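INTERNAL AUDIT FORM
Audit reference: QA-55
Scope: verify that the stored structure record matches its stored sequence.
Auditor: D.O.
Record contents follow.
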Amino acid sequence: MFDDSIARKSAEGKLQNLGDHSKNVAEISAFVSHYPNTSKLLAYLHDIGKISTEFQTYIKNGGDRGSVIHAWQGVFLANEILAEDNPYAILLKEMIGFCITAHHNHLDDGVSPDGTTYHFDQLLKSTAEKYSFDEIQEKICESERVQLMMLFEEAKPEVRDILAQIKSVYQNRDSATFALGLWTKYLFSCLVDADRLDAYLFDIEESYVRNTTSWDSLIDIFETNISKLSSTTHMDRIRYSVSEKCKSAAERENGIYQLTVPTGGGKTLSSFRFALHHSKQHAKKRIIYVIPYLSIIEQTAQNLRSILNLSEENNVIFEHHSNIVEAEDEKSSEIRKLSSSRWDSPVILTTMVQFLESVMSAKSGKLRKFASMADAVIIFDEIQSMPIKAINCFNEVATFLSKILKTTIVLCSATQPSLESTQRNNLLLQDNCKLIDCTEEFKDIKRVQVVAACEKDCQSAADFIFEKAIENGNCLAILNTKKSALTIYHHLESKSTEFELIHLSTSMCPIHRMDKIEHMKACLSEHKKVICVSTQLIEAGVDVSFACVVREMAGLDSIAQAAGRCNRNGESSEPKNVYTFRLKDENLEKLMDIKSGQEITSKLLENKNRDVNLLEEGILTEYYKQYFDVKERQMDYITSEGESVYKMLSGNDYGKKNYKNRTGNQFSHFVPHAFHTADRNFQVIDTRTKTVVVMFGDAERLVEEYRRQPSSIVTRDKIMILKKLQHYSVALYEWELKKLSEQSAIYPLDDETGIILLCGAYYSNATGVILDGVQDNFIV
C-alpha cells in the first residue's frame, strides 16, 4: 500500500518509499507483538498522513520538523472505514487513536483530572485544513480500503481475546481497567519500536533480521564456571545448595515468584542460574535484571560477564545505566535515542528507576522498552527497595507482564516485603510462590546481632566509628544522607592514618565507585585496616564483609541489609555486632519513607527484649505490617492533581466526574486513562535530576574520541562511546547544576546530544563531585 509516496529522506538524500516503510513496520511489530494482527493494522495506519501533498512537499524540500501533521489522519481514516459500533470495534478504534496520534510524542489523556478530553475532542476535527484529510481520502484507493478492512477483521478477535483474558485474570474493576491501559501501552510500544527500528535500518542501509537467543551456549559456559567456584567453607556449601535448588526450580511454570535468601547466600548467581534454565525450558526471549541502585549495577554486570566469559564489550549483556543516553521526546537527538538501544540483547541490566519510569511513562521513547519485557524473565533484585509510593502501580505491571504477556518474574530479597498483602491485593503471585525453601541451610547460622547505641552528633558518631574500627580491625559506617556521610568522613580524616579511609556515595560516577569497592575488597582480603563511610548504596548487593557495621537508624529492612555486610562469610564463629543509632538534628522531612521506617524500628527496639534477634523473619514480618499500615494510602502514588497516579491509570473516576460537571454528560468512551498526566506526575526520585559526565579515568579520552567523529551523522562508534560514558556520569539536582554553572564548571559536549560535561577541577578522587558550599540533605 501507498507505494507512490515517500516516507522519509536520509541525511544523504536517499528516499524511503511509504509502502516499504509500512510493510517493514508491520513485519517487525507483528514479530514482536502478542497481538500481531492488531500491530499490523497500526503499522499500516500510523503514517497515512504522509501521502498528503503538503507532507510530500515538506519531505522533498525540507522544513521545520513537525510542522506538517501526519499522525491524526490514520485515526480519522480508521473511524471512517471501520464503521462498526459494537464494543469490540469501538475499543479497537479508541486504542488505534491513542497509539497512532502518539507515535512521535506521548500518549494523550482519555480524560484529564480536570475533566477535559483533548484527545477525543480532536477526533471531531478531521475537516480542519491542517489535516488535508479530504485529499487523503481521495488518494486511498478501493483496494487499499479493502486491505485495511481485512486487517481490521483480523484484529477484532485479538480484542475479544484480551478482554476475555482480563476478565479471567482480574477480580476487581480497578485492576481490570489498569490492565486495559497497559494493553494500550504495550501495543503502542510495539509500534514505536518497529517504527524507530525501521528508520534506523534505513539510515544505515541494513535489513531487519529476526534475532532469537540460543540459551544452550550461555548455559554451558555458566555451568562450567559455576562448578569451579569454591566449596571449602560452610557458607560456600550453603550457596551451592541454594544455587542447585534454583536450577531445579527452572521447570516451574510461568508466574510471579519470591526468592528469599539471607544475605551472603548467593542470590545473584542463583537467580540468574534459574533465569537461564527457565528461559531455555520456556523459550523466553531475554533476561532482564533490575537492580535498585546504580551503585551495584557495575558489580552485577562484572559478576555476570565473568561467569559467562564475556569481555566488557560484548553483544550479550546490555547495561542501561541512566538517562545520559535516554532521549526525552521525538525532538531529542537521534544519536541519544539510538544509543539507549531497544533492549534487544539476551541479558539486560537496568535499575528500578529505569524500569518504573519506562512502564509508567506515556512518552514514545521510554515506553518503547515495554515491548521487550514480554516473554522474558525479569529478576527484581533487592525488591525491598521498591519505593512505597509505587507499590500498587508496580503490582499491576508485574501481574500484567506475568499473566498477559507470559513473563516470569522473580522478586529477590533477604528481607522479602509482603507486596501481595496490600489492601488492593493486586500482586497475583503464583500458587506456592516461594521459588525455593532454604530454611534448612540457614537454620543454625547466626552471623550478627543488632545492638542499639545512644543518639550521636556527627563528631561523636565519627569517634564511635573509629573506636569500633580499633576494636575490630575494620568498620563499615552507613548513613542516611550524603551530607551526613560526607561530614563524618571529613571528621575521620583528621584521626589516625593507620586506617585506609574510603568514602562511597552517588556523588561519584559508577566506575569510580566500582574502583573504590574493588580496592576496599582487596584491602579486606589482605586484612588491612579499613574504615568505609557510605550512603545506603552499599547495603544492597555489594559483596563485602566487615568485622563491624555501624548503621544510622533506619527501617529494619535497611538495618538487616546493612547487617548483611558484617561477618558475611562467617569469618567469625561468634556473632559480630551491628550497631544502630539516631543521628542528632538530622532533617529527614523530605525523606519520609526513611523517617517512618526509623520510627517503627525505634518502637520495635523499645518493645522487644534485648535478647530477641531483631533480624528473624517473624519480627521483619511485623515490621513490614506496621510500615505498610502507615503507608497504605501512599501506595497509590498521591499527586497534587486531586487524584493518585494509580487511579488516573485505572477507573479515573475523578476525571470522569469532572467531565460530567463540565459538560453535563457521562464520559462515554472505553479508555478513560489519564496517561499523560500520570506520566507527568510520576517520578521515582522526587526531585528531577540531570546527568553530567565527569572527568574521571578514561572519560576525557572518550570525550575526545567522540569529538573526532563526524558531526550530524549517526555512527556505531558514537553510540558505543555514549554507552561507555554512562560509566562516568553523575546525576545532579537543579540547584547543584545552577551552583556549578555560576562557577563556569559545566559545559556542553556538543550541539547535538545535550550531554553536559563537568570540569575536572570540580571532581575529587576521594569523594566525587565537589560543590562550593554545604550540600542539602538528600538520599542516594
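Auditor finding: record pair retrieved intact. DSSP finds 30 helices and 20 strands in the chain.
Action required: none
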